[in-house]
Design goal:
4 helices, alpha+beta, single chain, 6-stranded mixed sheet, 6 strands, about 160 residues
Length: about 160
């Protein structure tokens, strides 16, 4: 199933990169702002700031996992109501590529994340490096939302 979603997303990215539709010079800035807000939301521990960047029907595909569909399932995955605490110590994202049209965009990023996860008597601190691809879609109200994000852990 994950391969099917990956193929769909990759096909969409290829189509988007080949698109000849004219685009606004503001689009890259808006997408960069979303990426910056995403990182700052995690650093601030602000779930609303992170989740508000996603469309209601968004999909995430965490490294090595099945796709998680819809904002409520994404919320439950990232911000479970189970007394666990995740503290982000640092999160740096390098934008490797950004392509856009008037209504769609995608970015490829390299991220370095350092966090601690605690639940009950269990604590884990981890640093990881990943590559991510994010697909954005312009909404009917003119705002941009993330419709798909998938990443793979490098280490």
């Amino acid at each position: 199933m994950q391969r099917i979603y990956s193929l769909i997303i990759i096909t969409g990215l290829i189509c988007l990169s080949c698109a000849t539709e004219p685009h606004s010079k503001l689009v890259p800035e808006e997408i960069k702002n979303i990426s910056e807000t995403y990182v700052n939301g995690w650093l601030d521990g602000d779930s609303a700031k992170v989740l508000n960047l996603f469309a209601e029907d968004a999909t995430i595909i965490p490294s090595g996992m099945e796709p998680i569909l819809g904002i409520e399932n994404i919320r439950d995955y990232w911000f479970p109501n189970d007394s666990s605490i995740t503290t982000i110590h640092s999160y740096e994202v390098e934008l490797l590529e950004l392509k856009e049209t008037d209504s769609m965009a995608y970015s490829l990023e390299k991220g370095v994340l350092n966090f601690t996860y605690t639940k009950d008597d269990f604590t884990m601190t981890r640093a990881s490096t990943s590559h991510a691809s994010t697909v954005y879609k312009k909404q009917t109200d003119g705002t941009w939302k993330i419709i798909s994000r998938m990443w793979t852990q490098l280490k």
